[in-house]
Amino acid sequence: MAQAHGQLGDATLDVDPILLASAWAAMQELLGAGLCRAYHDVSDGGALVAALELGWASGLGVELGPVHAADALPTLFAEEPGALLAVAPADLAAVKAVLERHHLTAATWHLGSVRADRRVRVLDGDDAALLDTTLTALRARWSSVTHAIARRRDDPACADEEHAARVDDAAPGLTAHVPFDPADDVAAPMIARGARPRVAILREQGVNGQVEMAVAFTRAGFDAVDVHMSDLIDGRHTLTDVHGVVACGGFSFGDVLGAGRGWAMSILHNPRARAALEALWARPATFTLGVCNGCQMLSHLRALIPGAEAWPSLRRNRSEQFEARLSLVEILPSPSLFFAGMAGARLPIAVAHGEGRAELADGAQPLVAARYVDGAGRVATTYPANPNGSPGGVTAFTTADGRATIMMPHPERVIRTPTLSWHPAEWGDDSPWLRMFRNARAWLG
Question: Is 110 among the catalytic positions?
């Protein structure tokens, strides 16, 4: 604000350590009692900016005031240590009691309230509006510099699509639809028998998703075995004692040769590793899963995997950027053993890749198991709902017998609901994504 007005100012920010400690203690009590609906510090833009950011996140408008015109700038834009706290009207008395108990009454004041619409109003002492506009208009102004930078740095069309989505009042945001009970453990009868089939968690130099993947399969009733590519190449492991092999996410060989290609070459040009995998794929009671970098790698091996000949190659994202975000996918009807009973589900999932755009060979018709969709359930054709630009939003593929499945998003990272940055409030600890790992255990019987 000082820069915008050409002012250097003559007062520095300060903090009272006693007040700061009291504020910390009060917040812990409020959080523990469930009395805090939202919280945002004011240190980057002041109280008005904090209120706007809460509004953009929630879709709710705000009404602030009364603020006298002469005091508007220091009241709304001061960046001294402080926070904006949102509480339910029914909880206001209880919140004030906590603040008083921590000697914070003199350091707090009622700044305003939320609105059910998307308007932003700042009223002066006479109820006249110092500011009266919409969240959308301010969001467009707020994002204009980011948009301009993205158009120069990234794919310009993607930058335009993201900016349009950001200021679209009709966009529903992330949603979810689960046509099955996530708490229903379809693997429980098999686990009760005491047998824990072995699954090879395959990794290569640069792979980093093996621990989460091992946890997912262990939770589903498997004995997860760590198998490095050097184990196959040197003959220390032949995969003869496992019922499945899983290629994990990460950045094998730093993706220097492109999406998973270096990892695939370490198999194609090493007779022992190739023979071990081909022997496993020839056994009918085995399964294969590839996620992210593992999906890319297995796509390069499609000529070796029965029924995978039509799988696509994975190319650089249309956005020209590494995409790490929570995206929405729809599970489609397919023979994939991993998605049994999950067709029609619309679920949030973690995405983290730079090369996930599916490129289909001429005439190829792969069996699609999942695709990106928007919050209304429509096929995602624009960025960022479609994070990589794959045609028709396709992002998971399987074989006719359903034994082999590859996908770019990371289900193993979100088998527990708390690891999702957004989820419906009614979901329990097990997220719906745990079902696909339980399906694999149920399929083995």
Answer: no
**80 has catalytic annotation:** no
Cis before 189? omega within 30: no
pTM for the whole structure: 0.88
Catalytic residue among 292, 300, 330, 353: 292
E strand residue ranges, 95-229:
112-115, 119-123, 129-134, 198-203, 223-228
Q: Which two tokens stand for residue 106?
A: 């003199």
For 184, residues 6+ apart whose C-beta sits below 8 A from its C-beta are none
410 classed as catalytic: yes
Nearest one of 338, 328, 258, 263 to 294, comparing CA atoms = 263
Give residue for tokens 């650089």: 316
Judge contact between 438 and 185, C-beta under 8 A.
Answer: yes
Q: For residues 192 and 444, is the Cβ–Cβ distance under 8 A? A: no
Could you read off the pLDDT of 332-388 as tens digits, one per residue? 999 999 999 999 999 999 999 999 999 999 999 999 999 999 999 999 999 999 999
**Neighbour-count burial of 38, counting CB atoms closer than 10 A to its CB (0-12 exposed, 13-18 middle, 19+ buried):** middle
Instruction: Count other Cβ atoms within 10 Å, centred on residue 55.
Output: 21
pLDDT above 90: percentage of residues in the chain: 88
The burial of 222, by beta-carbon neighbours within 10 Å (0-12 exposed, 13-18 middle, 19 or more buried), is given as buried
Residue 291 near residue 248, CB atoms below 8 Å:
yes
Radius of gyration (Cα) for the chain, nearest Å?
A: 26
Catalytic residue among 40, 163, 410, 423: 410
H-state helical runs in 13-172: 17-32, 47-58, 72-77, 92-101, 135-153, 156-166
